[in-house]
Amino acid sequence: MPSPRDSLPAVTPAFDPETPAGIGGWLLLMLLGLVLTPLRVAWSTYGMLQPVLMPGVWEQLTEPGQPVYHPLWAPLIVAETAGNGLTLLLALLALWLFLRRSRRAPAVIIGLFVWSLLFAITDQAATGLIPMIPPPTTETLIDALVAPAVAVAIWVPYLLRSKRVRATFVL
Q1: From the CB of residue 84, how many other CB atoms can be counted at a distance below 10 Å?
Q2: What is the pLDDT of residues 111-124, one digit of tens each?
Q3: 11, 73, 145, 153: most buried by Cβ count inside 10 Å?
């Protein structure tokens, strides 16, 4: 006696040899960025925290009456550390989902790019509130703001429209 399963048509995804699939093309460049991002964020966070955690520095920055004291130092340092921590976690999650070719990977990567841009804007604005911090150079601003804005402008549309992305991550 045939089972009900035998009467169902076989469902196989349509194969189109013209549609690029797999991690290739522009996705290789994205993969490189996803591999380097956690390293860059970890190095940046270390570079920010290393001098602050030297003996006596935290107290000089955060205790009233000290020459370089400002009430925003502590919240800024804590917020930057937390923001970098979130960026690091998002980057690692995005990389893991990307390598697994999860259908969630594009959404998480878009979230990472948008978060990075919003965090960079907020961080630059907050940093400007502390008079002891010199204004950023043009090069610093380009690195801090233009790079994430360009990433959002290029990669978000690519992730949303690319046939390769749809075929690779089975959207």
Answers
A1: 19
A2: 999 999 999 999 99
A3: 73
